[in-house]
Amino acid sequence: MFSSIEDVVERFAKNNYIASRRIATVIYLASEMRKPILVEGPAGVGKTDLAKVLAASLGFDMIRLQCYEGLDEGKALYEWEYAKQLLYTQILKDKISEVLVGAKGLTEAVDRIAAQDEVFFSERFVLPRPLLKAISSEQPSVLLIDEI
What we know:
This protein is α+β, with helices and mostly antiparallel strands. It has helices at 5-14, 21-33, 47-58, 73-76, 82-91, 93-100, 106-114, 117-120, 130-136, and strands at 61-66, 78-80, 126-128, 141-146.
């Protein structure tokens, strides 16, 4: 993180951003307190650049969630890759048959398939979107929620 307000000014300057004392103070305090920063203003004043320079100054990734009408939690958090899941199911058809060999009735067959849920319902079929990327990242990141 930053060691002081002056450190913010210096690091931002290295990234070609002239930070006023007011901006540097907000950035420093927010980073120390690990709190979000709300920046508002008309188009073109540098809100996105502030996020980019903050990320660059800290050596973090910047993850951007672009808001728009119709954006729902599925598009902000993650999407489920149904096609990939179906492809795996088709490829593993023979293996599924092996799991079901000797099953005595539908209930036992369903129980055997249910025991394999982790194969078909796992993170390998999750396509992370900005919010999930930001909260599940092992490294800190700057999350820009744009046009909220």
